[in-house]
Design goal:
Blueprint (H helix, E strand, L loop, with lengths): L4 E5 L5 E5 L16 E3 L2 H6 L4 E3 L9 E5 L5 E4 L6 H8 L17 E7 L2 E7 L14 H8 L4 E7 L5 H15 L8 E6 L30
Parallel strand pairs: 6-8, 6-9, 9-10
Antiparallel strand pairs: 1-2, 1-5, 3-4, 7-8
Bound molecules: guanosine-5'-diphosphate (GDP) and magnesium ion.
């Protein structure tokens, strides 16, 4: 199993193992007692044991395996904020980057080397209003945030309302898991190289915010 796998009993959701370190081991279903065979010395030549006992049936159970990636820092923010770009410049990761929301469908991991200390960053995509309810790919990604020790909350400086975006993302995380509101956050305003706020193309308006979802973004 990859590091970060949570093993649960399928029916009860009881956690049997949470594998967060490499080489960690867990026994989740015991095999049956081994069978036995007597192999008298004469039989060695013929290869035929005189007595053979069947092994016992092993334990059988349905398990659910969930992967929650393990990172030191999770980069969160609205679609198009520049999360994948940030990861690509601080690490050797090469995530997909494009000027439209939802370019990332899996969390990307990258390792940044800061004065010889390695810090694992995860680019957490898919957060938008309603994510905790399953809007977009929200639930697929929210669970990955739970393991990040610190969050880098990236604000899209080109958005018409970066602070509103910030609140929406925080609210989604809290609704998903209230403990996430206690997670330390480093708030970063991105795209400050652009001349004015709201200075972006077709895709980066508020089309991912509720209420604006059905509106047609104006062509620019
Ligand atoms: N002007 C400007 N554009 C940026 C900056 N960071 C990212 N972008 C652009 O914003 C768009 C979305 O970036 P991406 O990293 O895919 O965003 P994500 O959806 O948050 O992962 C891309 O066109 C990037 O080139 C920045 O600091 N300044
Ligand atoms: Mg991305």
């Amino acid at each position: 199993m990859p590091v970060g796998t949570v093993v649960r009993v399928a029916e009860s959701d009881t956690v049997l193992a949470d594998l967060v370190r490499a080489e960690e081991r867990a026994l989740v279903a015991r095999g049956g007692a081994a069978g036995a065979a007597t192999l008298p010395s004469r039989a060695v030549a013929t290869g035929a044991p005189r007595l053979a006992e069947n092994g016992e049936v092993g334990e059988e159970r349905w398990l659910s395996l969930e992967l929650k990636i393990v990172a030191d820092a999770g980069i969160v923010g609205v679609p198009n904020a520049g999360k994948s770009t940030l990861l690509s410049v601080i690490s050797h990761a090469r995530p997909k980057i494009a000027d439209y929301p939802f370019t990332t469908v899996v969390p990307n991991l990258g390792v940044a080397d800061v004065s010889h200390v390695q810090i694992v960053f995860a680019d957490i995509p898919g957060l938008l209003e309603g994510a905790h309810d399953g809007v977009g790919l929200g639930l697929d990604f929210l669970r990955h945030i739970e393991r990040s020790r610190v969050l880098v909350h990236l604000l899209n400086g080109a958005s018409p309302d970066p602070l509103g975006d910030y609140e929406v993302i925080n609210q989604e995380m809290t609704l998903f898991n209230p403990a996430l509101s206690e997670r330390p956050q480093l708030v970063v305003l991105n795209k400050i190289d652009l001349p004015e706020p709201g200075h972006c193309g077709l895709s980066c308006g508020r089309s991912w915010r509720r209420g604006a979802r059905n509106s047609t973004p104006s062509a620019q």
